[in-house]
Known about the structure:
The chain is of the alpha+beta class. The protein has helices at 7-33, 39-47, 66-79, 81-100, 103-115, 233-269, 281-307, 314-339, 350-360, 367-379, and strands at residues 139-143, 146-157, 165-170, 182-187, 194-199, 210-221, 271-272, 275-276.
Amino acid sequence: xxxxxNEEQGEFRALLRRFVDREIIPxxxxxxxxxxxxxxxxxxxxxxxxxxxxxxxxxxGLDLDPVAFALVFEEIARGWMGIAGILGSHSLxxxxxxxxxxxxxxxxxxxxxxxxxxxxxxxxxxxxxxxxLQGIRTTARLDGDHYVVNGSKIWITNARYADPLPVLxxxxxxxxxxxxxxxxxxxxxxxxxYEVTKDIPKLGYKGTESSEIQLDNVRVHKDQLLGGVEGTGxxxxxxxxxxxxxxxxxxSVGIAQRAYDEALSYSQQRHAFGKPISDFQAIQxxxxxxxxxxxxxxxxxxxxxxxxxxxxxxxxxxxxKIFCSEVALEAAIDSLKVHGGYGYSTEFEVERLYxxxxxxxxxxxxxxxxxxxVAKSLIKGETVVG
Length: 386
């Protein structure tokens, strides 16, 4: 076994780290607090080709291996998790299109998506359907050569910039089981009846918008049906969400790493009773635990990333997402404790890390639900422990 990054991956991480240290970390706290959209950072990511990390090379993308994919989100989340969200939803959607789109759909969209000229997200969740995607109510009725779409979506990242937005709909609402009647439509932003109605205020995860979308008799040509076959939408989405769980696990590692970095630095600068607080055993125990958990989470994230190379890896990605997201929150809380009262101040980074970490246990499926996904994978023998 080799637990080290290969030379190419190491150089890529170094490039990402320089970008984050130079372009993101110096402005993250100020821009987050003012709710300023990070236009310059987005441009920088586009210039680096990061909007093409899941786009095949034939369409101008980087087509990164899964571990390098994880590195992107770990490093960017170390600087500002909200920025990782901008890239995360886009990359998940690009992978969905690259895996399941028709040749015409890929040729139409992927080259511009790879450069960031076009951006995208993914329209799954609804007011009454989050983790339970089979409970969506958005419908698409075929009328001649067009689907007529009605419904709403909520918590959609990149909603104001997505063009097209893959939207999960029910093309056969009476199907049983429900997932056999679900499809994905690629809806372009200027389609009449498609409207981003509002951005949802959030505790954390700022820098990117999370929006509500209304679809009122939106007419979408049948050529925009992802893959050209009805009833396959749920399978298409689930295959892409595996990479989404790797994304969340890696973002969690980035948050945890930054929490550790801030705790270590502060403990060496802050003095009490005439010496740095890092000299006190209580602080040393927290630092030792923090470092151990961060490194364990990192290895779990990379392991899950490697597991998706060979296809479906529900168990591995579920385990990683659960573990890493919980480490991120624990790390943020412990870093707050090391900082004492200053950790509660918005003048220090750790309060933002805490607010961002909370989302990691909710996004891409709640941890409690994912525990059942992992268990089913174990029972079926698809995932083996040991």
